Amino acid sequence: MGTIRTVGVVVFDGIERLDFEGPLGVLGWAARHSRDPTTVLLMSKDGQPVKDHLAGTTIEAEGSLVDSHRFDLLVVPGGDSRQFADDEELIAGVGKQGADSRIVASVCTGAFLVAGAGLANGKSIATHWMAHAGFETRYPNVHLAKDKRYIRDGNLWSSAGISAGIDMTLNLVTAEYGEIVSKKCQGLLEYFPKPPWTREEVRKALQD
Known about the structure:
Helices cover 38% and strands 18% of the residues. It is of the alpha/beta class. It has a single domain (6-207), classed as 3-Layer(aba) Sandwich (Rossmann fold), CATH 3.40.50. The mean pLDDT is 96.
């Protein structure tokens, strides 16, 4: 059973912070309980700071996607895809890092970057339900797992949104570190969701 010693996180303008901070919380506890330290590197396409799409706060990059790395895990978050889905430089960087990484994991609309980079060709991937139509139009060679919160297809893991990204990472930790470590991570995160609304109620509200 492997461990995740190096993690690369792709950051860009329009990113959703929780898409990567949730998984990093899980991975941080996994590293602590396995007593095997994990090194995390945040990378933008050019090494420059970026801004998230909701609060507009700055995220400092620690490296560039053009640098050479070999990560155990590459995390590709999502956010406001209108700000990054057509960024060819960013997509090329994701392709470079993903090809050299043992595992690639996308969260939410990060699937657009993974698919755009060719890392999901012929594979199944999950993304946010509101992005399904646009994704299918762009990437007909990728199977969209519409009914999955998260899915694994070989070395590609993907999830539908923020909380699903935590679900995905807990299952990734189970695969890499074992069930006991994963359970400890979930408990320490106090991750036992009880949302106030059903999926149907939420979708109706969003469509009104």
